[in-house]
Design a protein that fits this description.
Layout: E1 4-9, H1 15-29, E2 33-38, H2 45-49, H3 52-64, H4 70-75, E3 78-86, E4 89-90, H5 92-99, H6 102-106, E5 114-121, H7 128-142, E6 145-146, E7 166-168, H8 179-200
Parallel strand pairs: 1-2, 1-3, 3-5, 5-6, 5-7
Antiparallel strand pairs: 3-4
């Protein structure tokens, strides 16, 4: 039985989207059925349209990824969340998405699912680790089984964090995640798929 892995992310410039793709490729390599979905922007259309880079990134992502729905969470055996950092925390778009899960939480439908997270920041020490840790709080409220990458592959000694994949991208689309960043995300996705397969087999 294939584990069902959902990669749900928000990305303004497209860099978190690149990490999401690497997470998905890793989950596929780990034998999972995978969905990749994007949480949409909250900013008004006129604000986005006034920034050409933002508008282009939004349009590209809308064309590639379906918009995240709450029932995607119910479908999945494992959920890997991704967001850029906002002052050491998850982006408001992702927080709102999580805030819409009250009915699933009340019915215990997120309990015992595997959870993991990844992120990017504009600066070194800009909040990668604190942002990843903020995901562990709602995951704990949901009763999820948190599966971080830890130091389970040598690539974690070159990039990422033991809490999840990360990248320092300068807040710009022209500074994408490094190959090492993407390798960490791939490893994380594969690890989540493999651990989830063991859990659902029991």
């Amino acid at each position: 039985m294939k584990p069902k892995v959902l990669v749900v992310f928000y990305s303004r410039t497209g860099n978190v989207a690149k990490l999401a793709d690497a997470e998905a490729e890793g989950a596929l390599a780990g034998g999972a059925e995978v969905r990749v979905v994007r949480v949409d922007d909250l900013a008004p259309a006129e604000v986005i349209s006034s920034n050409e880079g933002w508008r282009q990134a939004r349009d590209t992502q809308r064309a590639k990824y379906p918009e995240a729905r709450i029932d995607d969470l119910e479908w999945a055996d494992a959920i890997i969340f991704g967001t850029p950092t906002r002052y050491g925390n998850m982006a408001a778009e992702m927080k709102l998405y999580l805030d819409k899960t009250a009915s699933l939480w009340a019915e215990g439908k997120l309990a015992n699912k595997v959870g993991s997270a990844f992120t990017s920041t504009a600066t070194t020490h800009g909040g990668n680790e604190t942002t990843l840790l903020t995901f562990f709080i709602p995951m704990s409220h949901f009763g999820m089984i948190i599966v971080p990458p830890g130091y389970t592959d040598p690539i974690l000694f070159q990039a990422g964090t033991p809490y999840g994949a990360s990248a320092v991208v300068g807040g710009r689309a022209d500074i994408p995640p490094t190959d090492a960043d993407l390798q960490v995300a791939h490893h994380q996705g594969k690890r989540v798929a493999e651990i989830t397969a063991k859990i659902i087999a029991k």
